[in-house]
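User: Please fill in residues for this 365-position structure.
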């Protein structure tokens, strides 16, 4: 953590939380093969929701309120979400060290941008067609498992995956998250976001409309940072020789990225043991995106260092791969004037965009 390169590399590689948005609207037949996760079906048909009940902040933009057309064509008679947002979290390993107190992170999220309990989550989903969930693997520590069990009963909003929580299994966790999401829901995008990122949920519907229109498959703040060839660095890449040079291929920063449903489904159709795994999750996912010929979209609104009128995701970019001190900053941000800017600059206006740093060649078709 002392060296400059290492700190920089944290940004490059640390992808504990990613958001996947699924965009592609495939002409689908029946949805009966997809079993919604408990409660989803019932929630989506609720109509008595008033956005101001949802959260003290209130005012979620529904798809209908945004000026962007959300879908190229309608998928009739299929209950479909705009996005599944998986907030990647972990087990508390050290209660005293806020960096590793994931329970405290979830608590502060529930006090800020993440709906506080299952009924708030249900109402949010019914009004926005965005499903939010914490995503968590398994622990061998019975007490840790029990703690999460209680938290889950109290607040809801957990997707549990059959994978041991550990840094080196993050890629497997992402893959399982995609698999479970694809098997359970039907949406336009999958958002993978870390639990130390401030998300402007109220801007997601408008952003999703823009990504749909662009036909994006892989949306995030793109980078192509230095490859660490020495084992003394945390982000060391043992397979560096395969990559052909000093820099990685272009891929999205790990703290938050979005995948179209189409590309997420493609990934989950492949045999996991046939895929290439690099040391870091964000690099690995970027490699799959390259192989699958996805449409990359450099979305700088997903890594803004402060709440601006364009920010969708905010963290201490590029200093940390998340908020450096999430427990403190999340609360302060939530109550700051900047983070309370309206979702859109004015009635009937579109969500302002930022110019990309990486301009990709438009792929035909
Ligand atoms: C759920 O959270 C909301 C605030 O977001 C609160 O008003 C409501 O009382 C909570 N419901 C339960 C059952 O705790
Ligand atoms: C991740 O999954 C791959 C493919 O199934 C497997 O070979 C590998 O051992 C797993 N890695 C970890 C750290 O569990
Ligand atoms: C934000 O400010 C309100 C009013 O002062 C306070 O009640 C609330 O606890 C604050 N929220 C957070 C997350 O600090």
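Assistant: Residues filled in for all 365 positions:
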């Amino acid at each position: 953590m002392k060296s400059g390169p290492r700190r920089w590399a944290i940004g490059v590689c640390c992808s504990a939380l990613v958001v996947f948005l699924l965009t592609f609207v495939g002409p689908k037949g029946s949805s009966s093969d997809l079993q919604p996760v408990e409660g989803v079906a019932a929630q989506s048909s609720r109509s008595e929701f008033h956005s101001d009940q949802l959260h003290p902040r209130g005012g979620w933009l529904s798809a209908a309120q945004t000026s962007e057309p959300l879908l190229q064509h309608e998928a009739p008679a299929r209950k479909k979400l705009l996005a599944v947002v998986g907030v990647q979290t972990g087990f508390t390993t050290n209660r005293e060290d806020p960096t590793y107190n994931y329970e405290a992170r979830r608590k502060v999220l529930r006090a800020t941008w993440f709906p506080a309990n299952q009924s708030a989550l249900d109402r949010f989903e019914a009004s926005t067609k965005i499903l939010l969930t914490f995503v968590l693997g398994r622990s061998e520590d019975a007490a840790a498992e029990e703690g999460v069990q209680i938290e889950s009963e109290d607040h809801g909003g957990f997707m549990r995956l059959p994978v041991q929580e550990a840094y080196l299994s993050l890629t497997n966790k992402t893959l399982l998250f995609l698999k479970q999401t694809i098997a359970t829901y039907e949406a336009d995008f999958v958002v993978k976001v870390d639990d130390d990122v401030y998300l402007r949920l109220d801007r997601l519907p408008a952003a999703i409309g823009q990504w749909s229109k662009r036909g994006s498959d892989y949306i995030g703040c793109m980078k192509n940072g230095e490859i660490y060839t020495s084992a003394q660095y945390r982000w060391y890449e043992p397979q560096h020789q395969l990559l052909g040079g000093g820099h990685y291929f272009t891929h999205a920063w790990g703290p938050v990225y979005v995948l179209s449903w189409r590309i997420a489904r493609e990934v989950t159709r492949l045999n996991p043991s046939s895929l290439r795994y690099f040391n870091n999750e964000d690099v690995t996912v970027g490699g799959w995106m390259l192989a699958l010929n996805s449409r990359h979209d450099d979305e700088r609104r997903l890594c803004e260092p402060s709440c601006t009128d364009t920010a969708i995701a905010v963290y201490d970019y590029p200093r940390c791969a998340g908020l450096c001190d999430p427990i403190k900053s999340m609360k302060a941000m939530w109550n700051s004037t900047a983070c309370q800017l309206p979702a859109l600059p004015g009635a009937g206006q579109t969500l302002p965009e930022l110019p990309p740093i990486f301009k990709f060649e438009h792929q035909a078709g």
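For context: Residues 4-25+36-340 form one domain.
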